Amino acid sequence: MMNGSTGQRSGGRGRVRVASLALGLLAGALTATAGGSSPAAALTPPVAITADDLTTWQTNGIVWSMAAGDGVVYAGGTFSTLRPPTAAPGSDERPAVNFAAFDTATGAPTDCSLSFTVSSGTATVRALALSPDGETLYAGGRFGAVNGVGVSNIAAIDTDTCTPRDDFKISVTATVRALAATDDTVYLGGDFTSVGGQTRNSFAAVTTGASLLPFTADGDEVGRAVEVTPDGRHVLLGGDFFRINGTTTHALAVVDATTGQLAKAYPGFIHDNSTVQDITTDATGFYTGNEGTGGGVFDGRIALNLNDFEQRWRDTCLGATQAVAVHSGVLYSGSHAHDCASMGAFPDQPRKHLLAQSVDDPKLLPWFPDTNDGIGEPVGPRVLTAASGGGSDYLWVGGEFTTVNGRPQQGLTRFADGPDTGAPWVPNVSLSTLTPGRIDVNWQTSFDTDDGELTYRIYKDGSSTPVHTTTGYSVFWDRPQLTWTDTDVAPGETHSYRITASDGPNTSAKSPAQSATVASSTEAYPARVRSDGASLYWRYDEGASTFAHDSSGKLNNGFLRGGPAYRQTPAAVAGPSTAIGFNGSSEYAYSNRLHAAPPRFSVETWIKTTTTQGGKIIGFGNLTQQNSTRHDKHVYMRNDGRLVFGVQSGGARTVTTSGAYNDGQWHHVVATQGPLGQGMTLYVDGQARASNILVSGNENYPGYWRVGGDNLSGWPNRPTSNFFEGQIDETAVYPTTLSASQVSAHYALRNG
Fold first, then answer.
1. Does the structure show a pLDDT above 60 at 11?
2. Cβ-Cβ contacts under 8 Å for 27 (sequence gap 6 or more)
């Protein structure tokens, strides 16, 4: 049943009643500004749990289930020992056979000790649920005894004495994977086909005295989730099934709490290869966590309304969801999400295991603590539960993981409603002096694991008082460039700048000081690039960071990956700018912003290399932190030094230079694509070297501009390396087709 004020379960798979929040929601989300603004506040609403993990005892195996009440969190799973928070595996351990109880507020074990065993094979506790009054803990799984007292895959524990109840005995023929409890009924789901000697397939209900009830909701496949609606009238079922009581409804069903008869079926609602692993509720809705099998199969979360059992929203992240929990209007989930690009979030990349969303909106909220995959399958978190203790609210996480936020921690972790102790990352800063009489201070917005809106303060010439304060929104996959222009300067003066990022209570260290001398005249080459309409312009003047600042004025900054060689000289173009060096194996840059495929475009850059392994110089791809699976609109070098410009248009269409350009000299490379009659042209050193006027289309997919490396699979004369070894400078992208005269003019300005 539900506590309507909090939206938390009083029983069910890993959920119980919790007290109302002591921490009120902060006012509406702050808006990024270009000028001065109010400082950011800790935790970006509606998030009310920090991402700072707290010291918690560990298990030596997998935690599959949790329940909480009266300041205690109960954990069940497949493990045999506990150890303190900082202890290494195998050290300072104490026995805990598939079960342990912990103080909610301290993370330390209580004196409640139970042993769940089986005569053969491996015992496991897969489900825990507290009775609404908190006096009985129901446990399900695969086990034949609790503290030596014989049972059959389900047991009831008196929480006052921490002993199994002798009056709760009923036979369940196979593993119990889900439990939910009301004042008079215990609902169970799992692998079983018989309960109490009578046929019950996947789901059943018994009294609190362990008598089988007539409730019948027979499934044809495994039951994995059971949840009672807040009004007690219905039971929500999740699992692998395709039918309940003979009626088609895959993975999700709503049944009558007394009879088990279908109240709402979901034929075709969930992909056949997707199953419901967990269900939770709040006062107005219920929420599923799904696991898909196969490429692109539904792996995310669904929010549904309790009044009509219809969908409110669903997300489309890929990476199976194992657990869900609601706290203060936020749906927290445990998964191994790796690709949320389809919903405007991060593209395919290393897994993220903990996410948060509003119960009213699938957009990912800025809450990103993380675990690793861990042991077992491995998939990271397996269960979440909200709990209260010591005047604070907590989110406990259990599963297969062996690290939390990059530090060793196995099986269990927890997060609280405060204090927020984690500072944002130090900002990456780059200065620009393209316009006489001013210095542009550019920086890459920072990242904080539980705050999206951050406050930035700029300090000039060693002063302890900021000369400018502003706010900006960022998440780990989207850290846009911010810029402030200092006009209180004079030509020939040199000034230095440092920037901090703050979430309110926590402020980063100041960035390393960056200095620049105010220009007295305009540099000809960059002025022409900008006047010709560049929408991305990276000059690579950063000293050491992940930031490639954009000089086009469009704030289209880049990420630098792998630690390339910064400030290489001499640069391609005369002046104070520098180049960057890539190693040909792991270093590259990509645009922060996701772009629609351009129907017309020009790409421009300078290269200097002696490589005989070729590699991609610049291109467009659908991924950022790994090789793209869709990739074209690119220029690459063959092993013999010849350059290739290629697009996908009914197949790979390419034009190739007759000469080689791996001679250790700087070369100006421009590739353009226009309408039929202009088609594709590849220029080198101001001259058209190859063209095909009949190819006017390219592949239509959203993607990122990448420099220095990406996938070249399937392209003609594919070089040995996907990555370019050499120096690159003055990279620009245009949403138009540069003319031959424009290209020639750019090349002519190389000497200033």
1. no
2. 45
What integer is the mean pLDDT of 242-270? 98
Residue 41 has what pLDDT?
Answer: 60
Dihedral class, residue 423 (left if φ above 0, else alpha if ψ from -120 to 50, else beta): beta
Distance, in Å, from the CA atom of 707 to the CA atom of 731, rounded to the nearest integer, reads: 8
Residue 44 banded pLDDT, cuts 50, 70, 90: confident
- Strands (E) in 293-422, as ranges, are 301-305, 311-314, 321-327, 330-337, 352-358, 361-364, 381-389, 392-399, 403-404, 407-408, 412-416
Structure tokens at 392: 């604070």
Q: Given this model, what pLDDT does residue 28 score?
A: 27
What Rg, from alpha-carbon coordinates, does the chain have?
30
Q: Which pLDDT value is given to residue 538?
A: 98
pTM of the model: 0.92
DSSP assignment letter at 26:
P
Query: How far apart are the C-alpha atoms of 148 and 8, rounded to whole Å?
Result: 33
Q: Which helix (H) or strand (E) holds 72?
A: strand 72-78
The string over 5-18, giving b where at least 16 C-beta atoms fall within 10 Å of a residue's C-beta and e elsewhere, is ebbbbbbbbbbbbb
Paired with 654 in beta bridges are: 646
Among 478, 416, 426, which residue's Cα sits nearest to residue 48? 416
Backbone angles phi, psi at 499, to 5 degrees: -135, 145
C-alpha separations of 250 from 10, 181, 222, 288 in Å: 27, 24, 11, 13
Tell me which DSSP letter residue 749 carries: G
CA distances from 339 to 273, 348, 477 (A): 18, 4, 11
Do you know the residue count of the chain?
Answer: 752
**Cα gap 49→51, rounded to integer Å:** 7
Residue 224 has pLDDT above 90, yes or no: yes
Q: How far is CA 476 from CA 114, 346, 450, in A?
A: 42, 8, 11
746 φ, ψ to 5°?
-60, -45
| 528 conformational bin, left if phi > 0, alpha if psi -120 to 50, beta if neither | alpha
Confidence (pLDDT) at 9: 35
285-315: pLDDT as tens digits:
999 999 999 999 999 999 999 999 999 999 9
Phi, then psi, of 748 in degrees rounded to 5: -65, -25
Beta partners for residue 652, in sequence order = 648
φ and ψ of 749, to 5 deg: -90, 10
